[in-house]
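Re: that chain you flagged

S.,

Sorry for the slow reply, it's been a week of failed gels. I finally had a moment to sit down with the sequence you sent. For the record, here it is as I used it:
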Amino acid sequence: MQAILYVCHGSRIAKARAEASNFVEQCKANINVPIQELCFIELAHPNIVTGIDICVQKGASRIVVLPLLLLSAGHAKHDIPEAIRQAKQRHPHLEIVLGEPFGVHEMMIDIVVDRIKEQAVPLDHESMILLIGRGSSDPDTKRDITAIAKLLQAKTNVPRVDICFLAAIRPTLEDGLYEASRSFYKKIFVVPYLLFTGVLMKTIEKQLRSLSSSNKQWILCNYLGYHPFLQNMIKENAQILLRANKGA
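Prediction finished late last night. Pasting the structure tokens below so you have them in one place:
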């Protein structure tokens, strides 16, 4: 019997965990698989190994593991595969298929555009976008955020899209805000490329409050959140991986 295990990042913030759980419930309703469970990489329960145990207890012989992560960095490349390796030791006859994070995808750009359009302020030639990534020591993170920024600029036709990061990579958030404040653009759309609320959003809000530039309009957009477009991506990825078993 097949199962799907949704892997979310995890957070100490109750609202973030609730957002993940609610989103996964919506995904479950769109996919015709009898066993579907949610687990977390860190900071919440159940963890990945326990999530796999639960699927097996419910009768799963093949599990499609779907990471609900924005980019392929340390969690996707190391933490999730290591948890799967541990689970395979416990269940040697179990087949586990690992999917990919959302990555650089057209629908991700559309989500960012939606978050910008939610604001009452229109984009124009006096506007720039500051795209803020979480950050990681994995070099692919900066490469992917740079690619997303280029696609975003092409889709919105704004004259400038800068990137910065909250941790581990330069330019830092402080660097990004400083450069934007020195630019001649009057409207700066600050876009957190984050999936859920939490400490990092509060960090961005605090930094923006500290800015004293009077000739700039700083527009903080909502974090990406569990947008309906993500449901489409998850359903498509799940169906491909589930069908792979039938063709084997």
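What I noticed first: The radius of gyration is 19 Å.

Talk soon,
D.
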